Structure prediction request, 277 residues.
Amino acid sequence: MLQELFGMTWWVRSVVPTMATNETSDRSQSTGERASSRSDGSDVSDAGVAHPLRSASVLVAGATGGLGAAIATEAARRGAELTLVGRDAARLEALDVEGHRVVADLRTPPACEHALDAAIDHVGRLDVVVNAVGVVAFGPIADLSVDVMEELFLTNTFVPILLARAALTRLSAGGAIVNLSGVIAEQNLPGMAAYGASKAAVRSFDEALAREARRAKLRVLDARPPHTETGLADRPLEGAAPRMPDGLAPAVVATVVCDALEAGTPDLASDAFPPGR
Ligand SMILES: NC(=O)c1ccc[n+]([C@@H]2O[C@H](COP(=O)([O-])OP(=O)(O)OC[C@H]3O[C@@H](n4cnc5c(N)ncnc54)[C@H](OP(=O)(O)O)[C@@H]3O)[C@@H](O)[C@H]2O)c1
Prediction:
């Protein structure tokens, strides 16, 4: 039955909205001060620290979100050439980050392929795909509508799978895929069962994908940040968020993720993120 439901919505979504949403737009690319080149061809920042993200082609999906925008900002600060993907053209345009804009709802395979191809068309290659797309819903499982459960898994689980599938054949050797599964993928909670399950599935997917991707010389980084103050919990598809302690600042999470990308860290468990803001 679920397969029927997914099949039906996939068909509707493939045919109807993506035709209208897959647009690209451009804004100037350069991100301020450039790197100086070293004799071995690698880049060096003004502080003399090698930044593997410098000049890397980085696509951020969910760039209009709290974590996506923070990661895009931090990657741009480190000199990456960005492709910013979001559903809403106005919100994308309003982002204070240089980069190529791609408007896409990523819930279908063609939409994911289109977004990645746009990055390659723009920069000439693709080195990193950061998936910061996500939705949340709260409440006991008996109260959660099936439509919302379906949307949680479509957006939180299938989008990462579809993006990764498209990325495997498009990323340059040495490239990386980052998924933000979240601390909930380590321990699920009552009132968040379906959301947590949709994210635990991503963590499980990443575990196997990392081994598959190794053959293509690609890395997969599963990042599991604790609760972060992005406003995600205030815009649930259904239900209301339980009281939560203060979360991390998005910029803190972005720094840890970008450091891990540059260091080649294979996994980012929740305890890799510093407590507090
Ligand atoms: N915030 C936390 O506490 C936390 C902790 C751990 C992990 N995470 C995970 O980190 C990711 C980002 O979370 P966030 O807090 O930054 O949430 P957010 O601020 O709500 O951002 C979510 C992003 O996903 C985009 N999106 C949603 N559905 C989409 C679709 N079908 N196609 C394309 N884009 C879509 C949104 O685009 P629009 O602007 O168009 O809505 C937005 O850019 C999520 O996967 C979340 O589960 C969050």
Notes: The chain has one domain: 51-272. The mean pLDDT is 85. Strands lie at 23-25, 36-37, 43-44, 57-61, 81-86, 100-103, 128-131, 176-180, 219-223, 267-268.
